[in-house]
Amino acid sequence: MKKYILLLGLVLALFIVGCSANQPNVPTQQPAPSTEPAVMPEPVPVPEEIVDSGSMVAGQVQMLGKQGFDLDQVTIKVGDSVVFMNSDPSNLNNNKDAMLVISTEKGKNLVTQKVSFQDSFEYAFAEPGTYDVLSVTSGIMMNVVVK
User: Fold this and answer.
1) Dihedral, CA atoms, 69, 86, 135, 145, nearest 10 degrees?
2) pLDDT per position as a tens digit, 53-104
3) Which of 16, 49, 105, 129 is deepest in the core (most CB within 10 A)?
4) Distance CA 119, CA 83 (A)
């Protein structure tokens, strides 16, 4: 009987050693690298100089769709231009146009302009005053102060 227990123990030990032996390294198949270049979104330009919260001196204003504009007010000199850039982050896949209206404080519309996604519109302010800029798309307004 002792022989059978010893034999059974030996067989069990061989079985355990055989099952725990290292398996040969089988290389896993890696996916082939993509041959298409990665598509990176175009960088959005940053305003030149921020004076205080929501104001800047001449330069560029980002139109951000439902969020309105990146600035509440821009202060420029007579004859300077402001560039309005359609940078609506919700437009990344649907390329919607934005509608922009620039008017005087008294409500006289000076210009109505459609601005395509990732495109810009530049307007030169020839006279001093405060001008309202409305994003018809979002219903949000900002001001341009011309000194």
Assistant:
1) 60
2) 344 445 789 988 888 889 999 999 999 999 999 887 776 656 678 899 999 9
3) 129
4) 10
Nearest to 135 by CA among 94, 79, 97: 97
Q: How many Å apart are CA 121 and CA 102, to the nearest integer?
A: 11
Give me the half-sphere count of Cα atoms (radius 13 Å) on the Cβ side of residue 76.
22
As a whole number of angstroms, the distance between CA 99 and CA 15 comes to 78
Q: Domain ranges in the chain?
A: 55-146
pLDDT digits (tens, 9 = 90+) for 91-104: 665 667 889 999 99
Q: Are 105 and 79 in contact (CB under 8 A)?
A: no
pTM: 0.58
Query: Cα 10 to the chain's mean position, in Å?
Result: 68
Look at the domain 55-146 and name its fold: Immunoglobulin-like (2.60.40)
Q: How far apart are CA 147 and CA 134, in angstroms?
A: 20
Token look-up 């560039």 returns 83
